[in-house]
């Protein structure tokens, strides 16, 4: 690789290149350290150089040269992914999208942007025109739109619109392939899922089109409940209430608001579980009626009523994967899981988890729409004792509780959220990256077609 890199380096003289070892190291990392397992496994991963293309034409030229010199390429947006998605396991070039940040079209119904556009900037631009995004991650302040589509899955807006996998939430992707003569491919409709949530293993996204809708007037609220079951019941009721237009419904066991909701502690009560919601101003009356109807629930905070002079960050920065971040700031030994409890027995399983695991697992649900139904996705905190215990807990949850775990302690598509190889993504990679140079090591089927999962053991990529 060294000789190839040096030849590549000479050919790339006119590009924006970063070779400073410290910043290359820093840009080679994402939020992988959320997982003690990945923290150890990926600590030495580093690119050889970082290139920041200024245009699609530069992306094409870089990929053409990297293909010619057999140099791997891993794309980076903002590097906020949690599972080492953007980390270059085989070294080579890190393609940093920080120059390609423009919004190209913004009109009712659609927003077209370059891949490195920051989602919060997109939302602000949309709101200036009376529009808004459907879906964004809680890292919207820094996350890029292509990073969200290639690495993310869901977030704020999912209770109304479903996640990224729901048809209609991405309208079009434009990619550049990794071939002797890179091609531009446009994906629409079902074809989008060949490259969405594929960690950039089968093309570099250079343009994205997403839907925008008329902007709503959002208000945030924090509700205290007697216990976590009451919080979950209220959340399902809010989720299902047609008269309440909502963007977020999140539910937390008492320890979370008590210890980790720093700026909001004056609005939390010790021992109470919490429900954080974002609803339209017009829905507040219906929300208040639901809360008042249940003696176990109390409205504790409304942003339209209680803000005063306070400058509070949005409640979404306490929800989704931010819950883990907040907890880790107080107690760095905390890690997390991502899972789906059996929805038809959710209260029974919640109770068994409490009895069997005590405070080793602290529950937190995010509510979303799945095929027209309200569902709870569970992102619990997990008190860390050893890597082996994480593996053991996951195996127990899957075997004894009927829980599906989307393992966040794995770096590959198969072992994490996807659970298995997506044949359409694999076939697309054969067409777009025949040498297997894009983000190597993230799609097991490409490296080892005969691989079978072994509970408790991570796939090891040797390049
Ligand atoms: P990166 O981390 O830079 O990249 C993610 C993946 O996309 C990598 O595999 C990368 O190679 C690939 N990629 C990036 N750009 C391109 C491109 N142009 N072409 C092809 N591939 C590309 N995720 C959610 O879905 N919902 C949440 O609510 C959420 N909350 C989070 C909260 C915290 C505190 C943290 C740390 C993470 C959270 N995440 C969440 C994960 C992550 O922040 C989001 O998915 C985010 O959108 C990723 O964007 P990024 O620009 O940082 O992508």
Give the CATH class of the largest domain: Alpha Beta
Radius of gyration: 22 Å
Number of helices: 16
CATH homologous superfamily annotation of the largest domain: FAD-linked oxidase, cap domain/gating helix
Taking the sheet with the most strands, its summary is: 6 strands, antiparallel
Number of structurally distinct domains? 3
Separation of termini?
Answer: 11 Å
Unreliable parts: none
Can you tell me the CATH architecture of the largest domain? 3-Layer(aba) Sandwich
Give the integer mean of the pLDDT values: 96
**Strand residue percentage:** 15-25%
Q: Which class best fits the helix and strand makeup?
A: alpha+beta
Helix amount, in percent? Answer: 25-40%
Q: Could you tell me which ligands this complex binds, including any ions or cofactors? A: flavin-adenine dinucleotide
**In order across it, which strands form the biggest sheet?**
15-12-14-13-19-20
Task: Assign the CATH topology of the largest domain.
Answer: Vanillyl-alcohol Oxidase, Chain A, domain 3
Oligomer: single chain
What general form does the structure show? globular
Q: Give the total of beta strands.
A: 22
What this model shows, in words?
This protein is α+β, with helices and mostly antiparallel strands. The protein folds into three domains: 2-96, 2-Layer Sandwich (Uridine Diphospho-n-acetylenolpyruvylglucosamine Reductase, domain 2), CATH 3.30.43; 103-214, Uridine Diphospho-n-acetylenolpyruvylglucosamine Reductase, domain 3 (2-Layer Sandwich), CATH 3.30.465; 218-336 and 339-405, FAD-linked oxidase, cap domain/gating helix (Vanillyl-alcohol Oxidase, Chain A, domain 3), CATH 3.40.462.40. Helices cover 30% and strands 21% of the residues. It has helices spanning 2-11, 21-27, 36-41, 56-68, 119-128, 145-151, 158-161, 228-240, 255-260, 284-293, 303-306, 322-330, 346-357, 387-400, 423-432, 444-447, and strands at 17-18, 49-51, 73-76, 93-96, 103-107, 110-113, 131-133, 172-176, 184-188, 204-210, 212-214, 218-225, 246-252, 273-280, 297-302, 334-336, 339-340, 361-362, 364-370, 373-378, 381-383, 404-405. The strands form six sheets. The chain has a six-stranded antiparallel sheet with strand order 15-12-14-13-19-20. Strands 5-6-10-8-9 form a five-stranded antiparallel sheet. A four-stranded mixed sheet has the order 1-2-4-3. Strand 19 and strand 20 (373-378) form a beta hairpin. The mean pLDDT is 96. Residues 30-31, 74-82, 85-86, 97, 115, 137-139, 143-144, 146-148, 150-155, 199-200, 204-205, 320-322, 325, 439 line the site of flavin-adenine dinucleotide (FAD). The site of flavin-adenine dinucleotide has 38 residues, from strand 3, helix 6, strand 10 and helix 12.
């Amino acid at each position: 690789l060294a000789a190839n890199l040096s030849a590549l380096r000479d050919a790339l003289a006119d590009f924006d290149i970063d070779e400073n070892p410290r910043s290359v190291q820093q840009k080679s990392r994402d939020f992988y350290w959320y997982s003690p397992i990945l923290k150890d496994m990926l600590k030495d991963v580093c690119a050889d150089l970082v290139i920041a293309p200024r245009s699609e034409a530069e992306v094409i030229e870089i990929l053409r040269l990297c293909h010619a010199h057999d140099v791997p390429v891993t794309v980076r947006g903002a590097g906020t992914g949690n599972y080492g998605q953007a980390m270059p396991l085989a070294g080579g070039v890190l393609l940093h999208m920080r120059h390609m940040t423009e919004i190209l079209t913004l009109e009712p119904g659609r927003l077209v942007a370059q891949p490195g556009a920051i989602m919060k900037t997109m939302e602000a631009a949309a709101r200036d025109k009376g529009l808004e995004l459907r879906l964004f991650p809680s890292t919207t302040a820094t996350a890029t739109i292509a990073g969200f589509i290639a690495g993310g899955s869901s977030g704020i807006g999912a209770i109304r619109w479903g996640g990224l996998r729901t048809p209609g939430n991405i309208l079009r992707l434009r990619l550049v392939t990794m071939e002797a003569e890179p091609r531009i491919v446009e994906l629409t409709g079902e074809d989008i899922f060949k490259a969405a949530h594929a960690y950039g293993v089968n093309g570099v996204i250079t343009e994205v089109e997403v839907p925008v809708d008329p902007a709503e007037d959002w208000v945030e609220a924090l509700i205290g409940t007697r216990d976590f079951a009451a919080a979950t019941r209220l959340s399902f009721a809010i989720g299902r209430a047609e008269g309440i237009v909502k963007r977020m419904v999140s539910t937390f066991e008492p320890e979370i608001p008590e210890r980790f909701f720093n700026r909001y502690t004056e609005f939390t009560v010790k021992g109470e579980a919490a429900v954080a919601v974002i609803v339209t101003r017009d829905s507040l009356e219906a929300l208040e009626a639901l809360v008042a109807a249940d003696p176990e629930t109390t409205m504790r905070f409304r942003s339209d009523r209680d803000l005063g002079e306070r400058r509070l960050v949005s409640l979404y920065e306490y929800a989704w994967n931010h819950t883990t971040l907040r907890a880790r700031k107080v107690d760095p030994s905390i890690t997390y899981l991502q899972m789906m409890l059996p929805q038809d027995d959710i209260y029974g399983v919640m109770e068994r988890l409490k009895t069997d695991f005590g405070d080793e697992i602290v529950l937190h649900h995010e509510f979303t729409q799945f095929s027209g139904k309200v569902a709870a996705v569970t992102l619990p905190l997990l008190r860390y004792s050893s890597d082996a215990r994480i593996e053991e807990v996951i195996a127990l949850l899957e075997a004894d509780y009927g829980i599906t775990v989307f393992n966040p302690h794995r770096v590959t598509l198969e072992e994490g959220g996807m659970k298995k190889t997506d044949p359409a993504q694999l076939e697309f990679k054969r067409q777009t990256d025949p040498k297997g140079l894009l983000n190597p090591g993230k799609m097991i089927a490409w490296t080892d077609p005969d691989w079978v999962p072994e509970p408790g053991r991570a796939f090891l990529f040797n390049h």
